[in-house]
Model the fold of this input.
Amino acid sequence: MNNARDCQILSASNVNSGSTGLLQLIGLKAFNDLDPVEKERLEGVHWATKVIHGGRTVFDQGDDRQTVYVLLSGWAFRYQLLADGKRQILDFVFGGSLLGFGACGANCYGLETVTDCKVALLPYMQFRRLIGLSPTLAISVAERVSDSETRAHEHMTSLGRRAARERIAGLIVELVSRTTSDGLAKHSCRLELPITQIMIGDALGLSNEHVCRILGKLADAGTISFSRNVLQVLDKGALVQEAGLEAEDSACRAGNEFAVAA
Amino acid sequence: MNNARDCQILSASNVNSGSTGLLQLIGLKAFNDLDPVEKERLEGVHWATKVIHGGRTVFDQGDDRQTVYVLLSGWAFRYQLLADGKRQILDFVFGGSLLGFGACGANCYGLETVTDCKVALLPYMQFRRLIGLSPTLAISVAERVSDSETRAHEHMTSLGRRAARERIAGLIVELVSRTTSDGLAKHSCRLELPITQIMIGDALGLSNEHVCRILGKLADAGTISFSRNVLQVLDKGALVQEAGLEAEDSACRAGNEFAVAA
DNA sequence: CGCTCCATTGATCCAGCTCAAGCTAAGTGG
DNA sequence: CCACTTAGCTTGAGCTGGATCAATGGAGCG
Done:
């Protein structure tokens, strides 16, 4: 998906691969701007990397925090399960996401891969110590978490106050805008979404049957097509309108506008 | 509500009142453990404090970030509005909450006071610079945001996958456990909740009529009573069961278990 | 080839919404 | 002190969006 981005970052730098996770977190520019002391500290840490196959549970809700992951490539999702087996997908994550970090001692969500995923990882306590030594990293972490919180808030609003059709259109808009850098601008686009309708349902609080019906209706209307994991947005404007966005939310999209002018 | 806690913190310290916001953020213990350099930096910053009356909008969704607030006492809530006027309350906040912080340039939610609120505040850019100078503060911020994200995730799961009755019971359990230090333990308790049924509905994605009916049913069952802003939990066990919790979620409750052993 | 997972379509049902109306209580101004 | 207003609570009746149940049809895969 956005492996392209990873490769760029990797090829643009001459850092040893043990710092890949770090780079994903703070970005190449911030890394180059680091003061020498901090840079040395951060570079001294070796991040393990590993590939996890698709459809695997990386950790479960309730597990003790042992590891912090930075997703380098591939798709995964975070979820919570209820006693009766119902599942809520909290969000879909891909390149750059920080996973497994949190204030309390246990993970409050599970993580499952969708496609094969490359991850960088660090023992939790080591990561913890590291952010105490590097303000730049600490700020990046705060920002990552804040981004994710913002996404959670948008998602909550959809679940609580939007109809099924709006939720689905909204999710598509979100995924397109997060996975492509230019998808937002174009009238139409084509994009591989490795997720099932069941996952869409679990993310949006809908049954898979209903998701299917509504995707069908959106297709009938000529707004999108979605089959065999290939999504085509045929009419961006109509889709955004279906999502009930447009006016609002345009506010919070951009990345880190505030550089830290220390 | 938990003014008690504030007062404790204030009286236990001999710090000038300009640091109140800071103390709420990082806690008294962490403050005393600070290394001298960092402590001096943090103490050099004067936080303004101010009282905002109940029922006021502090900032709107979409407003530029200008100020970071730390809520010292009182109740408020964060919300998002849709084009058609529907409102989603993201969460209720009270003493200790960090508000208005985020990675993007504009606030993604609005903030409205419920009761009169005392807040400590700092210009956004100044706060930004400050966390760049103090890893301890940066970590606190990351943890605050992470706590809030965790709450958002729980809330999302309720909205997406739980029935109205479970959502309402769950919200009550959450509020009781967040506002009291011992309410969790007792079989029954009494507590002033300054929120309306309309707010409960907007938080849980329900109509106020439905909230009313279900509160009535929970009262009929002898689980709670709620009138004139006074909530009584009569049967804690039954309430928790109604919420469909118990097994899960016990995991993520405690505060900061990981001290930074640098 | 058979298994399993997912998508699709139809039929039925119900939780929660909407609309409507009356009630209570706290202001508020004369 | 009372009339009037306003905001929130309560209750009833009917409707509907989306769930549930059931059955069928691919499609990858061991």
In short: Confidence is low (pLDDT under 50) at residues 1-15, 253-262 of chain B. Chain B touches chain A through 72 residues (CB under 8 Å).
